Amino acid sequence: MRITGISTHVVGTPWRNLTYVQVHTDEGLTGVGETRMLGHTDALLGYLREAEVNHILGSDPFAVEDLVRRMKVGDYGRAGEIVMSGIACVETACWDIKGQALGVPVWQLLGGRANAKDNRIKAYANGWYTVERTPEAFHKAATKVVERGYLALKLDPFGTGSFELDHAETIRSLSLVEAVRDAIGPERELLLEMHGRFSPATAIRLAKELEPFQPSWLEEPVPPENLKALAKVAEKTTLPIATGERIHDRIEFRELFESQAADIIQPDLGHLGGIGEMRKLAATAETHYVLIAPHNVGGSVLTAASLQLAGCTPNFKILEHFNDFADAEIKKVVKGAPQVVDGYFTLSEEPGLGVSLDTDAAAEFPQQQARFDLWAEGWEKREGTGGNKR
């Protein structure tokens, strides 16, 4: 079996573009992968056009390791977010092809079921708080999440906070967290996101004030470039620390593990090179007693791929899900899209990823000049700041 070509499809919303890549073969099998780029979709498409000629055409989709190696180091330059995201789309599609050809789900090819109690993977909701920043609005929105059966949810309550958070904004942010905890009750998981906003001193102060609400983790409390700053926060709080969505090569996690500054890592399968690279990283994390909870702000193909990893990974904690609350209508572009029922995904038994792209439905959502600025007033509404592009 050989790869005869790839095709790309961009599904656009005002705040995010989702890029789907189909890999086609001479035996009629087609696999699909996905990533979500922020502000670099055209750059990704440009890279994939060159990579198709230089590396992908004529390759054996079963030889995933070889293809990833050539795409990552064959151009010699250091692979960053764009290259690793392009690799992820193609690599994921190859696993999909391999599973289809062998008639088994990808998680079976990666070692078999290891972390799916009753064949289920726990989910947490994100993208649900597209409301005014008031306790009443957040309480009402969180109640709707509970009504949908979710047992966990995440929020960033800190507005446009950057380095510091003044007293008034601190009180406001804490009131939002208090309202959400009241809405969901003590038994459900509350996950707190900081988006790398703060200095260590501010993050430590906020962590202390957030402890009474018993969050399951504090995510990216400081910018991701300085691991000593993250370690300083970790040393001063009892809350678990989560980070990693902005690291795009598994090798770059080595220093994070050595620092012991994170309790949960959050790599994005669509940016880290795909399923195989994530599986290797998860195994390394396990040797450091670190859990994995992938960043997952894409659509249903990326969710399906992340669930394949979940099924065979002993230290897998929970999977993020946006598409019940943010851009829910885009779920129709993927046939067999994973669904959350009573707070859990069901691990698919279908061959490959268990999903397929509906290109006609995808065409209903053309690429947009999507922009998402976490430091702009009202970002939490996820309305975007760009206009139609195509």
Automatic annotation (TrEMBL):
Question: Is the keyword Protein transport in the record?
Answer: no
Task: Tell me where on the tree of life, at the top rank, the source sits.
Answer: Bacteria
MF GO annotations = lyase activity
Q: Where is the Mandelate racemase/muconate lactonizing enzyme C-terminal domain?
A: 135-240
Provide this UniProt record's keywords sorted from A to Z: Lyase
| InterPro entries, A to Z | DgoD-like, Enolase-like_C_sf, Enolase-like_N, Enolase_C-like, Mandelate_racemase_C, Mandelate_racemase_N_dom
Q: Which SUPFAM superfamilies match?
A: Enolase C-terminal domain-like, Enolase N-terminal domain-like
* Name assigned to this protein: Mandelate racemase/muconate lactonizing enzyme family protein
User: What is the organism field in this record?
Assistant: Streptomyces mimosae
